[in-house]
């Protein structure tokens, strides 16, 4: 807690001096403390990452099926299955390999050199060589190389957004801060590794280096944080485990029952193997991967770049979106929201629409205020006229320019002849300008300071007594509403003093007015928040900004519904027990002034309550929470490399509404994944019933393994993949998010797969028995064809759980229609091409046989459409 100690005491305790360490002492300390860099824990090798892709239940089942197929001589089956398994593994490996680069990004952030005092001389030293006790020099543009206790500050301002989330540069000083609970953003006498000096100069003593710095603690937190599996990954793992048990159980039962009836062992082994192949949806991993990739491409067109494919679907399950404020919910551009002058409050459009005062009329309070905004300002404009500089200064400059008060023109009329720069102790800044044969000084600063320096105020009725009560009340109101308030005053001089001292130039002032500044909310963010709420998703703001500012933005956007809702600060959060946090986390909508580890704490508390959490962030401080969240979302424009590498998704426009669009796309994708899982379960269930019941009914094995593989890869795979292009259901953003514990078989999917499969099996076996009775050698081809065509026709009903095909329209998913027609044509090739007859052991069907096959194939489709009609009734 070096911020609680005097700088001289810190220097003494670290056994250093203002002349710095000697080179010999620096070497000794380097050996003791190590290099000033972030350390990485042992990382998984690329080979280990690749092997881990094969640990999923579904993949293990497929590998077993490939081995068995190879043993019995079905090499085509083996090759096809191995190809699918390898494709899935390669895609998964590529995603994980990219995701493990967060630490490398942290290391790349480090500045290469720094100015350090060694032996009384300022030297340029590699940042890795800096040790505790080194005196480090700071100036504008410097990246801080280690954690420092500041010893000297001259108008020093620092950008700590990447570490704290604070949107504005922080004014620094050397004053002792006697509060052990201070968060990083409030420790104004400290400077932290990898933050940026934006203004002024200073010096400090290194109190922590490497992994002992605040950045190092975040790095350690990032390494210790394990990524959460997405809901789809959990559901598929559960599905794979259950499927493995069912497949083994059914195959064993069929094999044992056949042997007990006296069937040949080889025949029953082939039957069991065929049944296993039929039960395993070989195409499922590939179809899901391809579907997620297509979804990722769609999201990229909507400014949401997906880094991890599983995140595409997980977005559809999100129940909480924890969003940063600055740039995501707001414009990331300070704006003059209010002005108070001449006893009148000007707000919003009224401020913009107020009649423009004459630029030269310095007797007019409005003209004086806008002149002060333009002249008491250090903004610089680039070649395109864009204002550059401190965000507050830019906001004041733009407010003046919008009213026609162009600084370049004003400076010709009122040239600046002197200035007294801003000082953290005085908390004001003064510029002096020539006005004809006289001078005018303009002072800008904190309202309480200016009220003590002013004796009267200017109004449209001339100079009046200073109304301290009214001005203080307006300042308090603006501050409570989250505005950053600045006051303006002036004084006329016939002759300037010989020495322009602050105590002289900033006394007996005439008060002009107040301005209230705010980073305003995005227009589209309010609509996106409302859409979230309609979809059962709770938006939460987590920001490093002040509570008042956070409350104002949250109320404007609808994140908070009433003024009475509380904003929880980082200080309050630190006092919560784990039990208290678990009770409160579901109620809190805004967190302000939070520390990095607290963001992670909030995410973990929500996840412990069963919530699916999306977390946005842009700074280094956000990386652990991004990695832990179910969906980590980094900012593409303002985000650091660390945040991006720890995330699942990157917003290319840093816009909250883009997250909501991505959530909608995620819901559509999950709906479509569920549709083709339902389709594959129904079709595979039908195949299981056909193969398991045939021997029990005294019928020969109806299908060969090659038939089953063909069905699973072609008549299953093509239509299932085309289902990924299915348009959104009408209520996609009006229903509640899926529960995290919800099974993939929820809402009757499992029972529907059983009865529809049983009906399919009954139709096929009935046709098999009838054809064998009138045996012409075509019965197996006909069974093969009916099973294929039944699946192709039934997929048209799978498109919606409630809407009929008639209401959906046959051509509303042209990809599916094309896939069905293509699969039908491919099936005809297996029947009528001589080469295919040899490969698939098929015979050409007569026209009546083909017609009957098509007719029987529509039975399941009619049953599914009837079920929808009854359900809707």
What secondary-structure arrangement, pairings included, does this model have?
Blueprint: H1 7-13, H2 23-33, H3 46-52, H4 57-71, H5 75-99, H6 102-108, E1 113-118, E2 121-126, E3 135-139, E4 147-159, H7 161-164, E5 170-171, E6 190-191, E7 196-208, H8 214-224, H9 231-260, H10 265-279, H11 284-301, E8 304-306, H12 310-314, E9 320-323, E10 335-341, E11 344-347, H13 349-353, H14 365-375, E12 380-381, E13 387-388, H15 391-402, H16 407-413, E14 416-423, E15 428-435, E16 438-445, H17 447-453, E17 454-459, E18 462-465, H18 468-480, E19 484-493, H19 502-505, E20 509-518, H20 523-534, E21 538-543, H21 547-557, E22 568-569, H22 570-575, H23 578-584, E23 590-592, H24 596-608, E24 613-617, H25 623-628, E25 631-635, H26 641-646, E26 649-651, H27 656-696, H28 705-715, H29 717-722, H30 749-773, H31 779-798, H32 805-808, H33 814-832, H34 834-840, H35 847-857, H36 859-872
Parallel strand pairs: 9-21, 9-24, 17-20, 21-23, 22-23, 24-25, 25-26
Antiparallel strand pairs: 1-2, 1-3, 3-7, 4-5, 4-6, 4-7, 8-26, 10-11, 10-20, 12-13, 14-15, 15-16, 16-19, 17-18, 19-20
């Amino acid at each position: 807690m070096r911020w609680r100690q005097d700088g001289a005491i810190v220097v003494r305790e670290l056994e250093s001096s203002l002349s710095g360490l000697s080179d010999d002492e620096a070497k000794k300390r380097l050996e003791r403390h190590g290099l000033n860099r972030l350390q990485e824990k042992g990382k998984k090798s690329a080979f280990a990452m690749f092997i881990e892709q094969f640990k999923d239940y579904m993949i293990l089942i497929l590998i077993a099926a490939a081995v068995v197929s190879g043993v019995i001589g079905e090499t085509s089956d083996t090759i096809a299955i191995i190809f699918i398994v390898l494709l899935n593994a390669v895609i998964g490996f590529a995603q994980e390999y990219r995701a493990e680069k967060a630490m490398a990004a942290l290391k790349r952030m480090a500045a290469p050199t720094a100015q350090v005092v060694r032996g009384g001389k300022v030297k340029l030293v590699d940042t890795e060589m800096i040790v505790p006790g080194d005196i480090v020099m700071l100036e504008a543009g410097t990246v801080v190389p280690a954690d420092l206790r500041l010893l000297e500050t001259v108008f020093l301002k620092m950008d700590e957004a990447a570490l704290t989330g604070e949107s504005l540069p922080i004014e620094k000083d050397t004053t002792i801060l006697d509060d052990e609970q201070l968060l990083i953003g409030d420790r104004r006498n400290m400077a932290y590794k990898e933050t940026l000096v934006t203004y002024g100069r200073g010096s400090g003593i290194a109190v922590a280096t490497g992994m002992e710095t605040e950045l190092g603690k975040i790095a350690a937190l990032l390494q210790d944080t394990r990524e959460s599996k997405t809901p789809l990954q959990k559901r598929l793992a559960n599905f794979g485990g259950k499927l493995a048990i069912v497949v083994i159980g059914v195959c064993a039962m069929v094999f044992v029952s056949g042997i007990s009836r006296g069937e040949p062992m080889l025949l029953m082994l082939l039957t069991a193997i065929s049944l296993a192949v039929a039960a395993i949806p070989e195409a499922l991993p590939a179809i899901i991967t391809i579907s997620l990739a297509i979804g990722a491409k769609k999201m990229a067109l909507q400014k949401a770049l997906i880094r991890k494919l599983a995140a595409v679907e997980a977005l559809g399950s999100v129940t909480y979106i924890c969003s940063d404020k600055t740039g995501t919910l707001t414009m990331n551009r300070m704006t003059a929201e209010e002005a108070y002058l001449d006893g009148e409050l000007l707000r919003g459009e009224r401020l913009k629409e107020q009649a423009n005062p004459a630029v030269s009329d310095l007797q007019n309070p409005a003209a004086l205020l806008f002149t002060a905004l333009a002249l008491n300002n250090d903004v610089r404009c680039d070649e395109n006229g864009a204002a550059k500089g401190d965000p507050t200064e830019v906001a004041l400059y733009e407010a003046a320019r919008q009213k026609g008060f162009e600084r370049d023109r004003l400076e010709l009329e009122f040239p600046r002849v002197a200035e007294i720069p801003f000082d953290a102790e005085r908390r004001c800044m003064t510029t002096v300008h020539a006005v004809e044969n006289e001078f005018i000084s303009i002072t800008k600063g904190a309202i309480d300071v200016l009220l003590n320096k002013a004796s009267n105020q200017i109004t449209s009725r001339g100079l009046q007594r200073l109304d301290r009560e009214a001005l203080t009340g307006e300042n308090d109101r603006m501050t409570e509403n989250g505005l950053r308030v600045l006051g303006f005053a002036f004084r006329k001089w016939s002759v300037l003093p010989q020495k322009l001292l602050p105590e002289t130039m900033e006394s007996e002032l005439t008060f002009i007015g107040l301005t209230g500044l705010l980073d305003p909310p995005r227009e589209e963010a309010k609509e996106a928040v409302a859409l979230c709420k309609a979809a059962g998703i709770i938006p939460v703001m987590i920001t490093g900004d002040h509570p008042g500012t956070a409350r104002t933005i949250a109320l404007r956007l609808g994140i908070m519904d009433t003024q009475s809702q509380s904003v929880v600060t980082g200080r309050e959060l630190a006092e919560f027990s784990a039990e208290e946090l678990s009770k409160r986390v579901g109620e809190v909508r805004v967190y302000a002034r939070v520390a990095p580890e607290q963001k992670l704490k909030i995410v973990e508390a929500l996840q412990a309550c069963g919530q699916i959490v999306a977390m946005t962030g842009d700074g280094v401080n956000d990386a652990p929470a991004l990695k832990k969240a179910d969906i980590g979302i980094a900012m593409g424009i303002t985000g650091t490399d660390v945040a991006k590498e720890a995330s699942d998704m990157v917003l290319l426009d840093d816009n909250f509404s883009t997250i909501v669009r991505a959530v909608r796309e995620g819901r559509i994708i999950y709906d479509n994944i569920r549709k083709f899982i339902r389709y594959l379960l129904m079709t595979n269930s039908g195949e299981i019933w056909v193969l398991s019941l045939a021997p029990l009914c005294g019928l020969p094995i109806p299908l060969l393994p090659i038939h089953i593989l063909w069905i699973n890869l072609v008549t299953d795979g093509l239509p299932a993949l085309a289902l990924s292009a299915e348009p959104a259901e009408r209520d996609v953003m009006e229903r509640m998010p899926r529960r995290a514990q919800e099974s993939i078989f929820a809402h009757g999917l499992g029972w529907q797969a059983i009865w529809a499969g049983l009906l399919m099996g009954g139709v096929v076996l009935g046709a098999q028995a009838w054809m064998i009775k009138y045996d012409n050698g075509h019965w197996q081809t006909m069974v093969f064809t009916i099973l294929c065509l039944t699946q192709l026709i039934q997929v048209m009903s799978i498109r919606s759980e409630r809407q009929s095909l008639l209401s959906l329209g046959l051509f509303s998913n042209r990809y599916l229609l094309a896939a069905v027609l293509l699969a039908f044509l491919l099936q005809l090739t297996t029947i009528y091409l001589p080469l295919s007859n040899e490969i698939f052991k098929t015979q050409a069907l007569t026209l009546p046989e083909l017609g009957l096959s098509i007719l029987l194939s529509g039975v399941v489709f009619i049953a599914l459409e009837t079920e929808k009609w009854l359900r809707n009734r």
